[in-house]
Amino acid sequence: MNRVRPTLRCLREDFELPAGPVDRPLDEIDHPLLAKAQEQFADPGTPHERIAAVDDQVLFKVKVRRWRGAVWPDDPSAEIPLWLVAAGRREDGSATDFYAALAIAAKAARTRYNSTHTPALTTSTYTAHLLPDEQDRARYSAEAAARLERRLAATVHDLARASLLDGHEHQATVGGARLGLQIRANEGHETYVAVRITGSVPDAVTVTVLDLIPGCALDDWFPEYSLPERPLEAAEQAWSNLMDPIAAAKLLDVES
Q1: How much is the pLDDT for 72?
Q2: Predicted pLDDT of residue 188
Q3: CB-based contacts of 25: which residues, under 8 Å, 6+ apart?
Q4: The model's pTM
Q5: Which of 109, 127, 142 is the last residue before a domain boundary?
Q6: How far apart are CA 52 and CA 105, in angstroms?
Q7: Which residues, including other chains, have CB under 8 Å from residue 1's CB and lie 6 or more apart?
Q8: Are residues 205 and 125 part of one domain?
């Protein structure tokens, strides 16, 4: 699913919000316009209304209540395909529409640009100053650890629930590593957990994966050299532990 991300300029100047710590990805900020943009652009096949008065970039409209915004689609192959580059509120009784004001400002920016640059722009507007810059991309890179941990948490919990239901190993790939997780009750009614990680991953990722499994003490993980249903593969590490049955029940409650 595509995620819409505000630029730092949009966040600070238009939303009047701080960027906050890097463990809080900007696409997760709680704001009604950003939430609407996430919903509107979730499906890449959904048509969108272009801001026709802006002709130097393709900008799409996003609206919710009094909020108005402009979403810029980067190259589809880009790491961040969608950016919220401008936002504002429609004030009751105002004669100026947000999109009309955006176009007026973009035309003025084009005049300023042409006064100091050669060759002159042939478009009617200039909005490059609204697009993401190096600071935006640096912030995105700095958030990598937080985004990976969120993906790992969701994947590990999904695998745990699936294995609790059938006792077999379930697998998924996250961050370049292949994860396998198996949970089953043994004859003594203990809940046995086996985790395997295939691929070259930093030790910190391994610790994070093990720590994300509910009901298992981090210090009690034991390295294994085979799994219950098969031997280890090349470039694979495996660990085992016992899961608190109360934590297992809570996982299944979330699923239901």
Answers
A1: 96
A2: 59
A3: 143, 146, 147, 150
A4: 0.73
A5: 142
A6: 14
A7: 42
A8: no
Q: What is the mean pLDDT of each run of 10 residues along the chain (256 residues)?
A: 89 95 91 96 89 96 95 82 92 74 96 96 97 94 86 92 91 88 78 89 86 92 81 86 88 70
CB-CB contact of 77 with 46 (8 Å): no
H/E element, 146 = helix 144-166
231 and 208 together in one domain:
yes
| C-alpha distance from residue 55 to each of 17, 42, 49, 125 (Å) | 29, 25, 14, 6
What's the number of domains the chain is made of? 2
Q: Are residues 136 and 152 in the same domain?
A: no
Strands (E), 76-129: 82-89
**Contact by Cβ (8 Å): 4, 86:** no
Check residue 1 and give its pLDDT.
58
Report the amino acid identity of residue 50.
Answer: R
Distance, first Cα to last Cα, the chain: 24
Task: Answer yes or no: do 13 and 104 share one domain.
Answer: yes
Domain limit, last residue, from 142, 169, 191: 142
What is residue 187's predicted lDDT score, i.e. its pLDDT?
A: 60
Helix runs in the chain, H state only = 8-9, 32-40, 98-116, 134-142, 144-166, 203-212, 245-255
Whether 153 and 120 share a structural domain? no
* Residue recorded with tokens 């991300």: 5
Residue 205, pLDDT score: 85
Six-digit token string for 88:
């504002």
Range of the domain at 97: 4-142
What is the pLDDT at residue 256? 52
User: What's the confidence (pLDDT) of residue 93?
Assistant: 57
Looking at the structure, do residues 100 and 155 belong to the same domain, yes or no? no
Residues 133 and 152 reside in one and the same domain: no
CB burial of 229-238 (b: ≥16 within 10 Å; e: otherwise) equals eeeeeeeeeb
Residues 217 and 190 in one domain: yes
